[in-house]
What does this fold into?
Amino acid sequence: PPLSEILNLHDFEAIARLVMHERTWAYYSSAADDEISTRENHAAYHRVWFRPRVLRDVSTVDWSTTILGQPSSMPVYISATALGKLAHPDGELNLTRAAGNHGVIQMVPTMASFTFDEIVDAAKPGQAQFLQLYVNRDRNITKKLVQHAEKRGVKGLFVTVDTPQLGRRERDMRMRFANQEPTEAPQNTPQDRERVQKAANVVNSFIDPALNWNDIPWLQSITKMPIVLKGVQSWADAFEAYDRGLAGVVLSNHGGRQLEFARSGLEMLVEVTQHFKQKRGITFPNDKFQLFVDGGVRRATDVIKAVALGATAVGLGRPFLYASAYGQPGVERAMQILHDEFEMNMRLLGARTIKDLVPELVDASSIHAH
Ligand code: FNR
It folds into this structure.
């Protein structure tokens, strides 16, 4: 269907399933074990309801914000997803260019299908980008990448901490056993798919499972970029990150692809903010330490819920990959859809700016923090 008939981000997923090579679909959509955490990522948002305010002048609404000090047109960023080329020949570059046109920040993956420089070169002058980092066993490789990224103007470092090894994604494994040869899809060459197979092995040999808290001072010593831990899942680790002077954490279960039965980011957010408030007297959002959430976010209402509960911004992974099947225009359409959903829902909620999104606007009482 033409892009004009795509009404929401779920539509992109339905179409991606039809048009993408089945091995690409399996790699993108699959998750750990029985995929319970992935389902929970969506379900958690369904447990939070709105408590709108009325009779506020909402003739103009504005959902622009800043993320790690960088302006963003919405409290949404593109989370890192490996191997973007499987969706489209221009892969990650579609995301970069669409992000540039819409004032959205892209988190560039360590395991991108284009080189880091190709992706940075595709950005507009002044366009903010972040780097997602898998810390290599060979710390020199990591040091070079980080310092090169900083030199190229990257504005934040998201260190993935939930992947000491890859989770077990059985739908993806089955596809590889089937070993089907491609029929059409020129953007999806046998070499591209081979990269997927290799990627799993590469990731496992590349990422250092020995990474631990004692490596954090080293990371802080090699860069001035703000450092955020991606994949924190408990208030205790969030406290640890805070105490070590990090810039924030992404509360995430990696799209359900790592530890099965990991809770959803939204659930963790409620827990983390409650503990910070009760034990430290710290509330969110604040400029010193930022909370991010990802996993299962498909609607502006999901984003609004997370922001109302204290998140600075929310990451989306799969939706932009699926939209990328349409190339850059698809990714731009996805951003436009979110933008339009924001405008309407902010109005209906009686919120004019991001600052108006406070916890009182949602009922999160079905989420129990421990
Ligand atoms: C990911 N994600 C991810 N995260 C990361 O830190 N490094 C990576 O290389 C990847 N690669 C990756 C590939 C694919 C195909 C997916 C779907 C996800 C996780 C990603 O950054 C994010 O946490 C989730 O995608 C968020 O969930 P949703 O938005 O996909 O539901």
Observations:
- The first helix runs from residue 9 to 19.
- Confidence is low (pLDDT under 50) at residues 181-187.
